[in-house]
Amino acid sequence: MVMPDWMSFIIVGLATLFLLGEVFVNVKGIFGILGIGFITIYFAAWLVDPSMFFMMIILYMVGLLLIIIDGKVLNDGTFGVIGLVCMVLSVGITAPNWVAGLYAVIGIFVGGMSSLFFLKVFKKRVMWTKITLFDQLTDEKGYSSMNKSYHYLVGKEGSTITDMRPIGTIRIGEQEFSAISQGKWISKGTNIVITEVDGTKILIKEK
Fold it and tell me: What is the per-residue pLDDT across 101-135, written as a single tens digit (0 to 9) for each?
């Protein structure tokens, strides 16, 4: 299969859009199937060696997985950067020339950012809040005890001390809390306000 260079932007962009969308929202696997289909088409179009075909798909998927782990579990940034590099390498090495490779890399970024819009249309997956939000809420880590009620925080203003992707750490007064930005990524140092508290889950938005 041969396709024009600009098609790599469309195909890689759609693959990344749907695969990340599958992670963010509950669509019963439909986005996952579409995403795998598009990325398979991309690699199949230019890779002849079967061993390289599977290697590049694995590299792309590992990169995607590392980004998901970083954004949803670790919230550190290191795995996210490594994952992005893996994805860029996989589509860049596969491309027959630098123009097609550049289109493919742009497709990763555009598709990844566009996937956040699915959160406004479809039902969010709840599994991630079960895994991530309560991981560091200990007195030893500088957070308030999980046994205390945080309802008094509603309406309080503060700032983010880590990037919210969408999980991160905020400061209210002299205290630090783990919070969630309801699917929106917020940069470190942004002024925020607490909009809702559900048990130990603190929901925020930009001020």
Answer: 999 999 999 998 998 888 788 877 765 554 444 44
DSSP 34-50: HHHHHHHHHHHHH---H
Q: In this structure, are residues 57 and 46 in contact, taking their beta carbons and an 8 Å threshold? A: no
Distance CA 98, CA 95 (A): 7
Average pLDDT of span 24-47: 88
Which pair of structure tokens corresponds to residue 177? 């809390």
Q: Domains along the chain?
A: 7-120 (no CATH), 133-206 (2.40.50.140)
Tell which residue, 28, 32, 8, has the closest CA to residue 19.
32
Q: What is the DSSP letter of 4?
A: -
Question: What pTM value is reported for the model?
Answer: 0.59
